[in-house]
């Protein structure tokens, strides 16, 4: 288990993939009676490594940033092994915006890492709620965008940012679980805290949060500009826009890219810059207003 700063340790789950980089980062907060953030997949080897790495210390709280299969399934197994309750913002559909709720009701489904539909926390954490025990205190921050029930956690001068800001890649935004408008708001929320460092759900600690947040925001704004430029040549679907914009992307990643494109199309529709030919859907044709 790697010590990152006083009161923050990390163990990376053995679940590397094109979506998870080297694996999901599980964090241990405090000493003695500790909190574990994101136990990861239900992997007995990884969960055992967390418990064994703590020695005589005891897990008193289990916190989950969001209900994706690479972050949350291990929480219930770790809870059963330790007796510690599981805390989160809510079930997988908690925190959805109105437009995403409507899309979900019509059967639009996301993809990518996959939703942990069985996830059910024991206790809910509200936005801004402080959870403290022993020598540690965490402030829950509702930071949707990557996922509607996503929490980040402020700890001293750091923020554990889950997947809303990662240390190796821009985050996947896959409607109806992901929401680009919410993502922009979450970036601004974390930026306003001026954290010294970010501890993400995947990848290395972010040593210059302000610079990375600016880079991530600019990346999204550039993608929206590319979409608008493509639509000036005529109406297009998310699939055809993906082929135009992601020319060098490996085919296995085209599905995730197409969902990102759809997220941008929804946000541009909300800005009244574009419109779908009929219903707002991943297969719809979009054009400029």
Keywords:
Arc Repressor Mutant, subunit A; 7 helices; 7-stranded mixed beta sheet; 31% helix; 2 domains; elongated; 289 residues; alpha/beta; Metallo-beta-lactamase, Chain A; 5-stranded mixed beta sheet
Topology:
Blueprint: E1 2-5, E2 8-12, E3 25-29, E4 33-37, H1 44-54, E5 58-63, H2 73-82, E6 86-88, H3 98-105, E7 123-124, E8 130-133, E9 136-142, E10 151-155, E11 158-162, H4 180-192, E12 197-200, H5 209-231, H6 238-245, H7 254-270, E13 274-276, E14 286-288
Helix pairs in contact: 4-5, 5-7, 6-7
Q: How would you summarize this macromolecular structure in one to three sentences?
A:
The protein is of the alpha/beta class and 289 residues long.
Provide a descriptive summary of the structure in words.
This protein is α/β, with parallel strands linked by helices. It has 2 domains: 2-207, Metallo-beta-lactamase, Chain A, CATH 3.60.15; 217-288, Arc Repressor Mutant, subunit A (Orthogonal Bundle). The chain has helices at residues 44-54, 73-82, 98-105, 180-192, 209-231, 238-245, 254-270, and strands spanning 2-5, 8-12, 25-29, 33-37, 58-63, 86-88, 123-124, 130-133, 136-142, 151-155, 158-162, 197-200, 274-276, 286-288. The strands form 3 sheets. A 7-stranded mixed sheet has the order 1-2-3-4-5-6-7, with helices on one face. The longest helix has 23 residues, at 209-231. It starts with a strand and ends with a strand.
